[in-house]
Hints:
Elements: H1 2-29, H2 33-43, E1 50-53, H3 56-59, H4 64-71, E2 75-77, H5 85-96, E3 103-107, H6 121-128, H7 135-144, H8 162-166, H9 169-172, H10 219-233, E4 237-242, H11 249-255, H12 257-265, E5 269-271, H13 281-284, H14 294-311, H15 324-344, H16 349-355, E6 361-367, H17 377-386, H18 400-404, H19 408-416, E7 420-425, E8 430-435, E9 442-444, E10 447-451, E11 455-458, E12 461-465, E13 472-478, E14 483-490
Parallel strand pairs: 1-2, 1-3, 3-4, 4-5
Antiparallel strand pairs: 6-7, 6-13, 7-8, 9-10, 10-11, 11-12, 13-14
Amino acid sequence: xxxxxxxxxxxxxxxxxxxxxxxxxxxxxxxxxxxxxxxxxxxxxxxxxxxxxxxxxxxxxxxxxxxxxxxxxxxxxxxxxxxxxxxxxxxxxxxxxxxxxxxxxxxxxxxxxxxxxxxxxxxxxxxxxxxxxxxxxxxxxxxxxxxxxxxxxxxxxxxxxxxxxxxxxxxxxxxxxxxxxxxxxxxxxxxxxxxxxxxxxxxxxxxxxxxxxxxxxxxxxxxxxxxxxxxxxxxxxxxxxxxxxxxxxxxxxxxxxxxxxxxxxxxxxxxxxxxxxxxxxxxxxxxxxxxxxxxxxxxxxxxxxxxxxxxxxxxxxxxxxxxxxxxxxxxxxxxxxxxxxxxxxxxxxxxxxxxxxxxxxxxxxxxxxxxxxxxxxxxxxxxxxxxxxxxxxxxxxxxxxxxxxxxxxxxxxxxxxxxxxxxxxxxxxxxxxxxxxxxxxxxxxxxxxxxxxxxxxxxxxxxxxxxxxxxxxxxxxxxxxxxxxxxxxxx
Length: 491
């Protein structure tokens, strides 16, 4: 009997060790995008007051770290590329088994999509692979793949892929040749699930319509209702959001039904497609038809942050002795990540200027006389965009010219082609402009700024040598580190 017990113990021990090895292998071999995107949430799900769920448009439109810096909100963006509303429902259900946030923000774009899944099997892996095997995950995979005729882009039936969704090691076991040191280290996202899509695109033409669809029997409408009801059953407030993009007539009609669903459940629907003055599609688009770049995303994020703090009893955790130190440390890392993005784009003046619509960076810009930038409409608009004020509900009656083009002296400089000096002081929320051959000192929160046409100074300390060969010059003052972080001479 003793020998039998020892034998049973050895078998149990072997199985435990085998399971641990398989779990370790799964972590190492797993395609890291899913862990980078969502690992931070799974590590500490209870700390987030706001969860954001949706598809790629929501991924690229809402930056949790900016919500922290401006409003002290603790949030995580659980949206993922290619998510349909049925996928969003199951992701929300998996998340709410781990935490009970105060607010869930649901992205509703492509509400009328006719299937439960897109044709990308990889997108479903990204959304689910980070979650450990559970009864809910099994239910999710079985439900989403219940159509025996649905297949992915490669012709594989989704039902035949069920096993690899539940046990990702079956898909990634052949990744050994691709393994790097990064597969063994930390995979947390510096962006808390949000993702910067850095590019500029000319937007498609569009026309806002008043027509709204009445059909809401498709999967998107059904699962949006299920997601709302799931949250409300746990006393969680819900906000629907449709990020801004130049939507087609058909998309506006199908997604417009969300407004009536929101009314039915007594919740708000922030439809930025109709509030298209919040962003400027000429400078805020990553691609021509849908996704936002960081300039556009910061406008939407700021609007959402103000809306949430005005309408819900959310706590500003900036002074929380437990939460604030960790979040401030993470924001400092995020801040350096943003600067690295700027470094990568310094050879592309358009992208460089676009990235400077950033509340964390004060900017000093100098344009020499007769600069070629005075004949470049896009770059002039991007400079105006750096200083653009964000628009909120109470500002709907303001003059759009004041909001979109706040730099009056820049317009004068374009006509005269004289030298131009701009100081955007984010900390004190002030803008200073001067045009001409000579400049008087500008008193800013980071020192006295002036130039003599040959040198740019801060507190009489020379910063940049100026000449007429460059298109423009930039100094970036980081409000977090309280120092000049970058200096650029752009040809």
